[in-house]
Amino acid sequence: MTQWRKWGRDEAREWIAVPQESSDKYTRGVLGIVTGSELYPGAAVLGVEAASRTGVGMIRYLGAPRPSEHVLQRRPEVVTAPGRVQAWLIGSGMDASSRPQDDAHRLRTAVRDGTPVVVDAGALDLATRASGPVVITPHYRELAAVLAAAADDDSDAVTADDIAADPGAWAARAAESLGVTVLLKGHTTYVAAPDGPRLSVTAGPSWLATAGSGDVLGGVLGALVATHAREVDEDGHDALAALAATAAWVHGRAGERASRGGPIVALDIAGCLPDVVRDLVQGGDDPIP
Fold first, then answer.
1. Strand partners, 202
2. Cα angle, residue 246 at apex, residues 95 and 210 outer, rounded to 5°
3. Residues 189, 187: Cα–Cα separation, whole Å
4. Counting beta carbons within 10 angstroms of the beta carbon of residue 49, is it exposed (0 to 12), middle (13 to 18) or buried (19 or more)?
5. Per-residue pLDDT at 152
6. Any idea which architecture 5-278 has in CATH?
7. Rounded distance, CA 235 to CA 222, Å?
8. How far apart are CA 172 and CA 130, in angstroms?
9. How many angstroms separate the CA atoms of 125 and 115, rounded?
10. What pLDDT shows up at residue 9?
């Protein structure tokens, strides 16, 4: 039976990078982002907003014209020129079944870069093609589709209901079969690395189940991976699993602060991220206001 380690505040605190006096925007981590589309530009805005509020030094957003325009209107400090990055966040707000050629080129460039990649939604079909370490962030239906695509025949197919009935076991199985770290989203988030850690995170209210919440989580994780590129290079999937669990905890805690018992939207979650990160690094109790 798989033993799951619960991940909470004390564990998450160890995976927040605090800038030093000698830090600059490059040493604090550069995150490349290929998300959003002409149909779903908001996903790009949410991921960029979340990453920028989690503590990354610089963001390079390389997307389609419409989401690029929205991103720059919201966050004018984002760079839209290509260049070196420490990690990628790709796929949020994209549709693999109707991928424009330009988006396909951007995604292929990212997965061939050799740097760590956070893969979400519309890029999950590319997860096993990446030349660097990968963490995927599916929900139940998306993981079922990924596993179905990887199955040898129809008899190996799994449904979303199967995964919902035993999410931890399926997260672990997917990590082993795909060779990637899996963050399986849900009320309890399960994080599994191939031949590595098995972590569970229970944080955040049910109000987190709202449109765009997963895009925010992707931005948080992308920022954390970019700021810990050295640790990922040294420890591989062990570090990716710890970062994924930390992202889930930070995201859930931001949801609690934003909600205070009531409904929220995705930007509310992103807006509370700096307070959650501050309280983590200062060692406070992080009270709900």
1. 188
2. 45
3. 6
4. buried
5. 67
6. 3-Layer(aba) Sandwich (3.40)
7. 17
8. 20
9. 18
10. 95
Q: What are residue 31's DSSP bridge partners?
A: 59, 87
DSSP state of 79: B
Q: What's the CA gap between 54 and 74, in Å, rounded?
A: 16
Q: For residue 156, what pLDDT is reported?
A: 67
Residue 154 pLDDT = 63
Q: Domain coordinates of the chain in residue numbers?
A: 5-278
Low-confidence ranges of the chain (pLDDT < 70): 1-2, 152-156, 284-289
* Contact present, 128 and 181 (Cβ < 8 Å): no
From residue 157, how far is each of 56, 67, 141, 148, 161 by CA, in Å? 39, 35, 12, 5, 12
Residue with tokens 């460039």: 109
> What is the model's pLDDT at position 151?
79
Q: Which two tokens stand for residue 176?
A: 């082993």
Sheet holding 30-34, edge to edge: 5-6, 198-202, 188-192, 181-184, 134-136, 117-119, 87-90, 30-34, 58-61
| C-alpha torsion sign, points 11, 264, 53, 137 | positive
Compute the distance between CA of residue 223 and CA of residue 53 in angstroms, rounded to an integer: 9
How far, in Å, CA of 168 to CA of 108, rounded? 30
Q: What is the pLDDT of residue 155?
A: 58
Residue 173 neighbours by CB under 8 Å, 6+ apart:
none
Helix spans in the chain (H): 9-13, 42-54, 65-74, 101-111, 140-150, 160-165, 167-178, 213-227, 229-235, 237-259, 266-282
